[in-house]
Amino acid sequence: MFMRIDHVGIACHDLEEKIAFFERTFELTVVAREVNEEQGVKEAMLHIADGEGGGSYIQLLEPLGPDTPVGRFLAKRGEGVHHVAFGVPDVEEALETIGGRGVRLLDAQPRHGSMGSSIAFLHPKDVGGMLTELVQAPPRRPERS
Ligand code: V0V
Ligand code: CO
After folding, report:
1. Backbone phi, then psi, for 74, in 5-degree steps?
2. In a domain, 143, yes or no
3. Does 133 sit in the ligand 1 pocket, CB within 6 Å?
4. Predicted confidence (pLDDT) at residue 143 exceeds the cutoff of 80
5. Which atom of ligand 1 is nearest to the CA of 73?
6. Has residue 22 been placed in a domain?
7. Residue 141 resides in a domain
8. Domain presence at residue 142
9. pTM higher than 0.90
10. 105 lies in which domain range?
């Protein structure tokens, strides 16, 4: 069902500062940035590797406000790993299968994610405390600049 780890999402207070740290320290490169109003985040993807069906990334997340998933997370827990996202061939199919196995779905339908992907979240309380994201990459990733 899972083809790869698509990304690890990291919550932070200051996106620009964290991007600079990751670039400087780990020699990673930002390949996409987006403000996602629906998810309440400003995010940046730092490329790590390419694989079959899509790449893998670190996703840095800054909340658009305190009353958002990442805003509440920062207030409660501070900066750190917010979610792990797994690449799947078909998000709708994966949701149906995983939901059928008793895991609460935070999204009944796929939503818009980074770089044109389709995403959906699973409740962390049903996945051993890990907020889990399913990612279906678009047919072809946008060219890297
Ligand atoms: C909350 N909890 C977490 C958690 N966030 N546990 C593990 N990892 C997290 N990230 C725990 C929290 O400690 C509570 O447990 C319980 O879940 C309920 O949380 P809450 O404080 O009431 O917080 P809420 O109201 O924010 O609800 C949490 C959920 C919410 C996970 C339901 O954040 C959500 O719907 N998230 C999905 C959307 C999202 O996260 N979007 C941002 C990333 P105790 O204290 O009661 O034991 S956007 C993204 O990744 C994009 C765009 C992309 O990849 O392309
Ligand atoms: Co994510």
Report:
1. -60, -40
2. no
3. yes
4. no
5. 5
6. yes
7. no
8. no
9. yes
10. 4-136
